[in-house]
Design a protein that fits this description.
The chain is 21% helix and 20% strand. With 527 residues, it is an alpha+beta fold. The model has no long low-confidence stretch (mean pLDDT 94).
Length: 527
């Protein structure tokens, strides 16, 4: 086979009949090609399909002569063609089958029964292979070819000698982690693998409440109900749903008919109830007499509603302290959720005179540049309609008075974001020095048993030709520490410092929509 690369781009032909989509795993046939069509929405920078990924994609075939694509098999997670391109093996979840390549089939056709397969695994040999693979991944993909000056060959030999002392897969992960830790850099993760049989876990249902300290009255009292967001299924709070009669100060008398006293661990009565209907017996006074019943569905996690309560409490504090002049938003990460949170809070507050962007506890991701692009916009004019008030140009441009909050748990692309705003002088950075890990990663080959490791692959170089942020973090313009005691008392010194700064800036240079001047007079003047 000889491939001529001259004028390669001039020999591209359109696959007529294939509309734009999210396609993977293109494989050639004699008369066309096969590919996977992912129709479900996904917001990930590094989308890929391999033997470990899930999903339900459509396997489609395109015939060049017919100029038409049709679906051969639905619900496919991945597939592979045989060497002669006559057969293909497909995977739907954890089910496999072999069918004719290019012909229509359905899940279950050509099923391969894996229940009878038994493998003899030499753990010592497997551990050695996994270790060597982890070592090679760092060697081949680490952003610095000189491995930060570490003798990588010698380092491999040093830790490889300890493999016989690894009693289980967790020990091997620990050993590999120690080896890659010698590179002294963030994002060197080691994870997963065949950990052997593990007993199934049992969830505990949660009501989204804080219970009061036992007071000797015999029953658990609800001190606080965490509010939810009724129109979002991911943020529902069981006792905050419309129509629920149970309120703060009420007592839980029984759960599914089982009496509960304040000497009992109340959570033990909610074992394996997450997502399942539970009957609560409750009363406004600590007695079973006159108690009532109400059916609720406990949560598997309170994280989302407690996060929302924390964010809204910060926003309310800023609104009250600034008299509505300053907006507030929190970005939990630099992924899909972080972008949604930014849009959810930024646009409704775009007319505020200043904005606090809180990225404390930001877990990183990849959308920092997208948000920076929005914040870099600058007002240059107004559009004045016949009805309604003036609008800004560009549309929905925000104030140039920005404060960004960071802390020790701001990491990765969250640090990238803060350092960029600092260097571009777009915002004042307030808080504490961040984690210090910005050399980026992307997916690489997994281990034979499903585990993996991440090589830091993309270094961050400043325009002054210095390596920035990694190993040190982002230094705030204004250092403010939230002391643990203050946090427990509800004081947020970092947020208060941001409010004070922005209110001063507003006082020095008020912003807002202008008064409409007199309209131009263009009538014809007659003498």
């Amino acid at each position: 086979l000889v491939i001529h690369t001259n004028d390669f781009e001039r020999r591209i032909v359109a696959a007529e009949g294939v509309v734009a989509g999210n396609y993977f795993r293109l494989e050639a046939l004699d008369d066309g090609f096969l590919y996977l069509d992912k129709t479900e929405r996904e917001f990930t920078k590094y989308q890929n399909v391999n033997d470990l990924t899930g999903g339900a994609l459509n396997l489609r075939r395109y015939v060049l002569e017919d100029k038409e694509a049709k679906t051969l098999l639905s619900g496919v997670s991945n597939y592979h063609l045989s060497a002669d391109r006559e057969k293909l093996v497909y995977r739907c979840g954890n089910r496999f089958g072999v069918v004719d390549a290019g012909k229509e089939a359905k899940e279950g056709d050509g099923r391969i029964d894996l229940d009878t397969i038994r493998l003899r695994v030499d753990r010592g040999e497997e551990f050695l292979q996994i270790f060597n693979e982890a070592w090679r991944i760092q060697r081949d993909w680490f952003y610095d070819p000189d491995m930060h000056g570490v003798d990588w060959e010698a380092m491999g030999e040093k830790y490889r000698a300890l493999i016989p002392w690894c009693g289980n897969r967790g020990d091997l992960n620990y050993l590999i982690g120690e080896m890659i830790g010698e590179l002294s850099i963030g994002h060197t993760y080691i994870f997963g693998g065949d950990m052997g049989h593990r007993a199934p876990t049992v969830s505990v249902g949660l009501l989204g409440v804080d219970y009061a300290e036992p007071s000797g009255k015999g029953f658990h009292r609800i001190e606080r109900i965490i509010p939810g967001t009724p129109w979002m299924t991911s943020e529902l709070s069981p006792l905050d749903e419309p129509g629920c009669p149970i309120g703060e100060g009420d007592y839980i008398i029984a759960v599914n008919g089982q009496p509960v006293t304040d000497r009992d661990n109340i959570y033990s009565f909610f074992m394996d109830t997450a997502g399942k209907p539970v009957q609560l017996t409750w009363n406004s006074s600590p007695t079973a007499d006159g108690a009532k019943q109400w059916l609720v569905t406990p949560l598997g996690s309170e994280r989302r509603i407690r996060y929302r309560q924390w964010v809204e409490s910060r926003r309310a504090l800023v609104d009250q302290a600034s008299g509505g002049a300053v907006g507030y938003l929190h970005i939990p990460d630099m992924g899909e959720r972080g972008l949604i949170e930014f849009a959810r809070a930024f646009y409704p507050q775009v007319d505020k005179q200043a904005m606090i962007i809180d990225e404390r506890y930001n877990g990183g991701g990849f959308v920092g540049d997208m948000i920076i692009d929005r914040l870099e916009r600058r007002l240059w004019s107004f559009t004045v309609p016949r009805e309604g008030g003036p609008g800004r140009n560009p549309e929905r441009v925000g104030s140039d008075k920005l404060a960004v909050l960071i802390n020790e748990d701001t990491g990765s692309n969250g640090e990238f974001f803060a350092e960029a705003l600092k260097r571009k002088e777009l915002a004042t950075i307030i808080g504490m020095r961040t984690w210090g890990g910005v050399v980026g990663i992307e997916p690489h080959q997994g281990f034979v048993d499903g585990g993996g490791t991440t090589p830091p692959q993309f270094g961050l170089l400043g325009t002054d030709r210095t390596w920035i942020v990694e190993g040190h973090g982002v230094e705030p313009d204004l250092e403010v520490q939230n002391m643990p005691g203050d946090v427990m008392r509800g004081t947020d010194s970092q947020l208060e410092a941001a409010i004070e700064l922005l209110m001063k800036q507003i006082g020095d240079q008020p912003a807002g929509l202008p008064e409409i001047p007199a309209y131009p007079v263009k009538k014809k003047v007659t003498e």
